[in-house]
Amino acid sequence: FRVATPEQELGKLPLGSRPAKRKPTGGIESLRAIPWIFSWAQTRLVLPSWLGVTKAIEAVKADGNEAITEEMVANWPFFASRLSMLDMVFHKADPRISEEYDARLVPENLKHFGAALRQELKDSIASLLKLTGEDDIMKSDPQGKESMEIRAGYLQPLHYLQIELLERIRQVEEGEHNAELERAMMVTIAGIAIGMRNTG
Fold first, then answer.
1. Backbone angles phi and psi of 26, in degrees to 5
2. Which long-range contacts (CB under 8 A, 24 or more apart) does 78-84 make?
3. What is the pLDDT of residues 169-180, one digit of tens each?
4. What are the domain boundaries of the chain?
5. CA-to-CA distance for 121 and 44, rounded, in angstroms?
């Protein structure tokens, strides 16, 4: 998480009314919700928004409750709303962009974690489509889909620039700062957040 996302660099941004961490010296367990979600959104894996959801639904179905899940999909507005949100999150996710962050920033011995998460994303999308009976994500919201696709074209160069900046910033000697790199980094963070339309 630390090496694949701009989580440490985000700590320098004034986001929200509270510090990014509950304990300044703590690890990821001390992170507050906003930087945790925001960091994953920056790399387009959007992990906290979907991980485990379809697995939970599959577990319910495996326990012989498939009829209940079908009833929930058809007649429970809250559940339908949750699935619609999941559909939108899957459209915002881009495993190819996430893989670029891993390729440039993550040590070889940790890359299998990212690969496993991207496979889990692919499997989760397939599970959602099977559950809803659709053949593609965002089928029920063509305008939203088109809007995200237009924004994705502008986001891609920002992601590549952010990856390059993260690599350069992390090569700066500890205790030293490169103000130009850090300012450029903040611009990419803000630009990606605007393009994704969420901060966490």
1. -75, 165
2. 82/53, 83/128, 83/131, 83/132, 84/140, 84/141
3. 999 877 777 889
4. 7-196
5. 11
